[in-house]
Specification:
The complex is a heterodimer of chains A (275) and B (262). Chain A is mainly α. Chain A has twelve helices and two strands, in the order αββααααααααααα. With 262 residues, chain B is mainly α. Chain B has one domain: MetI-like (MetI-like fold). The chains are: A mainly alpha (275), B mainly alpha (262). Chains A and B meet through helix 1, helix 3, helix 5, helix 7 and helix 8 of A and helix 1, helix 3, helix 4, helix 5 and helix 6 of B.
Chain lengths: 275, 262
């Protein structure tokens, strides 16, 4: 009784700010938009069906999935040496190295993208270096396109991959690698045949987490894409605030949630098999 | 096994990618040039001057700070009792309710922002203080309850039971014994809630209006439309505030204690 009283304020706030809005989102996805562009109450799958039949939706889904998959793969691959370095470092360096790996999480995503604009832009660091070396007549176009979005997304996903890998690799038994070295395996062979297979579950977990985060990323595709890169997240934003087609925005959001739920389910199944 | 040279090389590449944007933002905020040119043509404080003399941005900074304080207070006020119940009491539905208090983090902020817009707009609560506080509380409460539950769990039960034996009511024992011991956790939870709200961009994008905007939203819009170093100075302002909060927590309680590890 008193326990429920203690929970009540938090639960009421959650009901008002989370449960009700999400229920309303699901409800509005069943509404219709009439020819005048106004929302009409309905109980139909018409809006959802229109989206599913539209080729643009599938193009967005494909763009989003490939962007998230490639970025998550790169982020995981680049986080692996970082996590391995931290694991092998002397204890007094470990804290600092771990902090440096997750430090970007303390800095807002928009701020880091401004940094990328200064590095990758037409007058940025990389183009300045290329021009100085006489390697490029024209500046390389590294922002306002998919390349820029991918670079920005890899960087924003890396701290999460590092977190998962630092935790996952810390539990591996280092004696197995030492045994391989004692038995005459080279460093590379030890890495390939001992470390990598042992790290596989952690790598998979890091990939799936960063994939899910990449699928719903909005700030990076919007800002690094310069309005020329379209993914599911930017489309939901535009439908809600530019076109003001609420049923379509809600239906698109429901499709995204469905896809994410499927990915999480897959993660659960794979996780159980790995355990 | 000590890391080999190849591993060090790849790790250095990883760290470069992780840290270069932050370093570059810091450098370019002191640029004397008119664009996001790197290396900057010279150094000056002109963009900081411009930032501090911009009424719009200063208003947004003030809004963000006030909002973050209010959100932290709200999250602690509703989160602390709930965490106490989760950590200390047995009751039906405990796990489900604890799950509910963590649930908003499972949703992409983009979807949560859209849902809040659809719910708050018809009630005329979009672009209002109550609307923004409610919205930010949804992402702050999960952190507040997680940290406070850990803090309350770490307080030995014996102390509370001793207070009962000495005649204190359960409420008095909780307020006078358990809460003070868990206070470092509350400070850490409050600071984290402040930072979560102060940096929140995506949900706010759905809910701000011409009269009420936050600093991350203004920074997002600025980065979308213009490319001068003012946005870097703005980014540094956000980083300075975050650092100040982190240092304050360190001074007040120390990280190890705040996170419940002595």
């Amino acid at each position: 009784m008193s326990a429920w009283l203690l929970m009540l304020p938090a639960v009421l706030l959650m009901a008002a700010g989370f449960l009700y809005p999400v229920a309303l989102l699901a409800r509005i996805s069943l509404n219709r938009t009439n020819d005048m562009g106004a929302m009409e109450p309905a109980h139909s799958l018409e809006t959802l069906g229109r989206l599913v039949e539209d080729e643009f939706t599938w193009e967005l889904a494909w763009n989003t999935a490939t962007l998230a998959a490639s970025s998550a793969l790169m982020a995981t691959a680049l986080a692996l040496p970082v996590a391995l370095l931290i694991r092998g470092a002397a204890p007094r360096w470990r804290g600092l190295l771990s902090l440096m790996a997750v430090a970007p999480l303390l800095v807002s995503g928009t701020a880091r993208i401004v940094g990328w604009m200064a590095i990758l832009g037409d007058r940025g660091l990389i183009n300045a270096v290329l021009a100085g070396l006489g390697l490029a007549e024209e500046p390389l176009r590294l922002i306002n396109n998919w390349t820029g979005v991918r670079i920005g997304l890899v960087e924003s996903l890396m701290p999460y991959a590092c977190l998962v890998l630092i935790a996952g690799l810390g539990r591996l038994d280092a004696r197995l690698e030492e045994a391989a070295a004692t038995l005459g395996a080279t460093r590379f062979r030890t890495f390939l045949r001992v470390t990598l297979p042992l790290a596989a579950p952690a790598l998979l977990a890091a990939f799936l987490l960063t994939f899910v985060l990449g699928v719903s990323a909005f700030v990076t595709p919007r800002l690094m894409g310069g309005g020329r890169v379209f993914v599911v997240a930017t489309e939901i934003f535009d439908l809600a605030l530019e076109t003001v087609d609420w049923p379509a925005a809600a239906a698109m959001a429901m499709l995204l949630l469905g896809a994410l739920a499927a990915a999480m389910l897959l993660r659960g199944l794979l996780g159980r098999r790995a355990a | 096994m000590r890391p080999g040279i190849l591993l060090r090389l790849f790790a250095a590449l990883g760290y470069t990618l992780l840290l270069s944007p932050v370093v570059v933002v810091a450098a370019i905020s002191f640029s004397a040039g008119d664009f996001l040119t790197f290396p900057p043509p010279g150094f000056s404080l002109r963009w900081y001057q411009q930032l501090f003399s911009s009424g719009e941005l200063m208003a947004a900074l003030r809004n963000s700070a006030v909002l973050a304080v209010v959100v932290a207070v709200v999250a602690l006020l509703v989160g602390a009792p709930a965490s106490y119940a989760i950590a200390r009491l047995e009751f039906p539905g405990r796990d489900a309710l604890a799950g509910l208090l963590a649930a908003p983090l499972l949703l992409p902020t983009l979807v949560l922002g859209l849902a809040l817009l659809l719910a708050l707009q018809p009630l005329r609560l979009a672009a209002t203080w109550p609307g923004l506080v409610l919205a930010h509380s949804m992402v702050a409460i999960p952190f507040a309850t997680r940290i406070m539950t850990t803090a309350f769990t770490a307080v030995p039960r014996d102390l509370e039971e001793a207070a009962w034996t000495l005649g204190a009511t359960p409420l008095r024992a909780a307020l006078r014994v358990t809460l003070p011991i868990a206070a470092p956790g509350a400070v850490a939870a409050g600071a984290l809630c402040f930072l979560v709200s102060f940096d929140e961009t995506v949900i706010s994008l759905f809910l701000v209006g011409p009269r009420l905007s936050t600093l991350p939203v203004e920074m997002f819009r600025y980065a979308e439309n213009r490319t001068d170093p003012l946005v870097a100075a703005l980014a540094m302002a956000l980083i300075f505030v975050a650092l100040a909060v982190v240092l304050l927590v360190e001074r007040l309680v120390g990280f190890q204690r705040a996170l419940g590890r002595e």
